[in-house]
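User: Just a sanity check before I run the rest of the batch. Below are the structure tokens for the first item. I only need the designed sequence back.
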């Protein structure tokens, strides 16, 4: 397949654990809008609307909420399951936002203000999977990035030792998000391409359908956790359900200098000074695959 020869190179990728997800690489130029595409088509510079105009979204629909420099935006699950990658600008910052339905995880990476005068990476979906997690790459250099850590694993950006910094992504419902951020923008309905997938209830409802590494037995494989890298660098997994119950009963949820707070119907992490620590939600199997030494919070 065109493009894969540039991806399958030496680097910090164990190619024995990489499989094909059944779709071609998305190698379209930045801003390409010609559809349909046999790939999973990323969105570049998405069109957005106000919360009041987003009448197509139901109150209980899942959205991934991001706030940068006071500007809030909602990325609906119905769109992210179809597109799996967004290159956006929010709050004056460039972002790459991958979503992997297999892992139940949306992350947000800053793709500007990079060292060594690195040009903005344009993130794309390769069609390949590593331990049932999407393999994303930079369209400019064909450098592969670890979707869970933001670390460049191959190519010129790996040679520079580049690791993208993360922003917080809150997984919540549309009503809670818009009530907390009434001035939020939201991606427009047409970006869903007329589709509405729900893989959790169909294709992979019983767990990963592609090979993964050793399974950590401390939690069920599809337990939803909020993953955080503490200021010390230690990875922590906070089970979402128990964490919300604890907070609503007045119990502190904290570990390694990180405290969870309820925010917009989801969970946000802060440090001892109340400063935000980047976090995102994922299935347990995925977080533990890429952070095998993670601590698991419990009461």
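Assistant: Here's the designed sequence for the first item:
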């Amino acid at each position: 397949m065109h493009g894969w020869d540039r991806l399958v190179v030496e680097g910090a990728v164990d190619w024995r654990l990489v499989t094909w997800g059944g779709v071609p690489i998305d190698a379209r130029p930045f801003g390409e809008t010609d559809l349909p595409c046999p790939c999973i088509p990323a969105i570049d510079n998405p069109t957005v609307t106000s919360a009041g105009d987003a009448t197509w979204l139901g109150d209980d629909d899942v959205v991934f909420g991001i706030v940068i420099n006071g500007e809030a935006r909602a990325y609906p699950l119905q769109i992210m399951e179809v597109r799996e990658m967004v290159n956006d600008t929010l709050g004056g910052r460039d972002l790459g936002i991958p979503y992997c339905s297999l892992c139940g995880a949306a992350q947000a990476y800053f793709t500007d203000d990079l060292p060594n005068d690195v040009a903005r990476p344009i993130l794309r979906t390769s069609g390949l999977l590593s331990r049932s997690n999407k393999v994303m790459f930079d369209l400019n250099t064909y450098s592969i990035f670890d979707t869970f850590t933001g670390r460049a694993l191959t190519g010129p950006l790996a040679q520079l030792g580049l690791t993208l910094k993360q922003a917080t992504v809150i997984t919540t419902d549309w009503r809670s998000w818009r009530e907390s951020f009434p001035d939020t923008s939201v991606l427009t309905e047409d970006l869903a391409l007329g589709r509405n997938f729900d893989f959790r209830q169909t294709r992979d409802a019983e767990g990963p359908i592609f090979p993964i590494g050793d399974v950590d037995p401390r939690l069920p494989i599809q337990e939803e956790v909020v993953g955080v890298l503490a200021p010390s660098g230690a990875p922590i997994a906070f089970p979402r359900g128990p964490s919300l119950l604890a907070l609503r009963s007045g119990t502190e949820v904290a570990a390694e200098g990180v405290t969870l707070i309820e925010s917009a119907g989801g969970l946000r992490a802060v440090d001892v000074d109340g400063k935000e620590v980047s976090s995102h939600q994922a299935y347990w199997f995925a977080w533990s695959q890429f952070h095998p030494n993670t601590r698991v919070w419990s009461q």
